[in-house]
Amino acid sequence: MSKPTGVHRLPELIEAAAAVVGAGDLEQVLRSLVAEAKGATGARYAALGVIGEHGVLTEFLHEGLTDEQTARIGALPTGKGVLGTLVRENRTIRLDSIADHPDSYGFPPNHPPMSSFLGVPVAAGGRAFGNLYLTEKDGGFTDDDVMLVEALSRIAGSAVTTARLQERLRSIAVGEDRERIARDLHDSVIQDLFAVGLALQGISERVTDPTAASTIEDSVDRLDAVVESLRAYIFQLRATGDRGQLDDRLQELVSRMGSAYPASVTLEIAVARLPTGHLEDEVVKCVSEALSNALRHSGGADVDVVVDADPDWCRIWVRDNGAGFDPASSTTGMGLANLAARAATVGGRIDVTSRPGEGTTVDVRLPIS
Q1: How many angstroms separate the CA atoms of 303 and 324, rounded?
Q2: What digits encode the pLDDT tens for the residues 175-213?
Q3: Are residue 23 and residue 139 in the same domain, yes or no?
Q4: Is residue 1 domain-resident?
Q5: Which long-range contacts (CB under 8 A, 24 or more apart) does 308-313 make?
Q6: Total of domains in the chain
Q7: 165: which strand partners?
Q8: Residue-wise pLDDT tens digits, 85-126
Q9: Short-list 273, 272, 231, CA closest to 252
Q10: What is the pLDDT of residue 328?
Q11: Is residue 2 classed exposed, middle or buried when 0-12, 13-18 and 19+ CB atoms within 10 A define those classes?
Q12: Which alpha helices (DSSP H) does the chain contain, by range?
């Protein structure tokens, strides 16, 4: 059986995104992303060129050529022809035939023929880092291919930014530097990954194949989890032991997620003192999962988030005034299933109350002791 391509490979692409969070070996992560781009589009060849001084490619990570073919070709590309055009113009280029482009430079001896082409810039920290190249796809590259490879280019840029920031972390220990790195992670890496998620959601609205649509929804769920894992890491960098950290995390989370949807989202923290430590992370993740599910699926104009606690339990309610459903006849989606599993791992549980046309309330209980 042939491997799936396009939107059906999104789970693999999101696993590639997950590698960004722990990008210890940058070259390995980038090679993985090149392989994912090749597999996702069905291209015969794929590569990532790293731009050095004066716009010359200093590294070229490639997939599709055998070692024997690579040896016969000799020197790797340095950025002439269409590759150089992509470096100069720093924009996506899609061609049915490389030879028809006015900047086409031709290929060296022993190079396999290549016709269709898709090139996408990779930026890291707001600056050009390199380009992703795909060639030789039967029938040419599609709009969906462009979307997928542009998403992967953001992930590649995030991997580079993360690796650079981790290197800085290994060499510093000053509080203000930790704060600056945390801010860079938030402003560069998280925003890139969040943009990927929004792009996937936009594509899901145009997909008519139910299986493909479900694949996209599941993939966005997984990408949300990646973003929240990285967000937790950022707050660990910023942690100073002061009160109010969970309040700040919840306020920021609700503000960020609510800004991406037309619904009005409110947050009420109904207790003066909230959990800390490991349970704090679980509260944030549960709010994120439940809120994401309500915003993406309910269609409601209003979503309310309430967080409360007593000596024994932390309670989270997420209520929407959307379409609702009959819990007795509906299959639990991946979002609620993930939420139930997360609560269960710490000895908690969730209850879902819903009726068609009357909205949904998700009630999460997490034990404090």
Answers
A1: 13
A2: 556 666 766 666 666 666 766 776 666 666 666 677 767
A3: yes
A4: no
A5: 308/269, 308/270, 308/271, 309/271, 309/273, 309/274, 309/275, 309/368, 310/271, 311/368, 312/367, 312/368, 312/369, 313/365, 313/366, 313/367, 313/368
A6: 2
A7: none
A8: 998 999 999 999 999 998 888 788 888 989 999 999 998 877
A9: 231
A10: 76
A11: exposed
A12: 10-21, 26-41, 67-73, 81-89, 143-171, 175-184, 191-204, 210-238, 245-259, 278-297, 334-345
Instruction: Tell whether 274 and 338 lie within a shared domain.
Output: yes
> What global pTM score does this model have?
0.58
Residue 171 in contact with residue 132, Cβ under 8 Å?
no
* Percent of the chain topping pLDDT 90: 25
Tokens for 272? Answer: 């003066």
Task: Tell me the two tokens of residue 156.
Answer: 């590649």
Separation CA 329–CA 10 (nearest Å): 29
Of 204, 220, 249, at which residue does a domain stop?
Answer: 204
Identify which of 281, 292, 347, 337 has the alpha carbon closest to the alpha carbon of residue 318: 292
The amino acid that residue 103 corresponds to is: D
Strands 93-95 and 302-309 turn out to be unpaired
- Please report whether residue 254 resides in a domain: no
The verdict on 180 and 283 lying in the same domain is no
Range of the domain at 43: 6-204
Q: Place 249 in a pLDDT band, splitting at 50, 70 and 90.
A: confident
Spell out a b/e string for 297-328, using b for 16 or more CB atoms within 10 Å of the CB, else e: bbebeebbbbbebeeeebbbbbbbbbebbeee
Cα(216)–Cα(203) distance, rounded to whole angstroms?
A: 8
* Cβ atoms of residues 187 and 162 within 8 Å: no
What CATH code is carried by the domain that includes residue 328? 3.30.565.10
Question: Between the ranges 70-79, 226-235, 312-321, where is the mean pLDDT highest?
Answer: 312-321
Neighbouring residues of 337: CB distance < 8 A, sequence distance ≥ 6? none
Can you tell me whether residue 135 is helix, strand or coil?
A: strand
In angstroms, rounded to a whole number, what is the distance separating the alpha carbons of residues 151 and 64? 21
Our CA dihedral for 196, 201, 202, 206, rounded to 10 degrees, sits at 140
> For residue 139, is it left (φ>0), alpha (ψ between -120 and 50) or beta?
left
CATH number at 166 reads 3.30.450.40
Band of the pLDDT at 278, cuts 50, 70, 90? confident
* Per-residue pLDDT, 93: 95
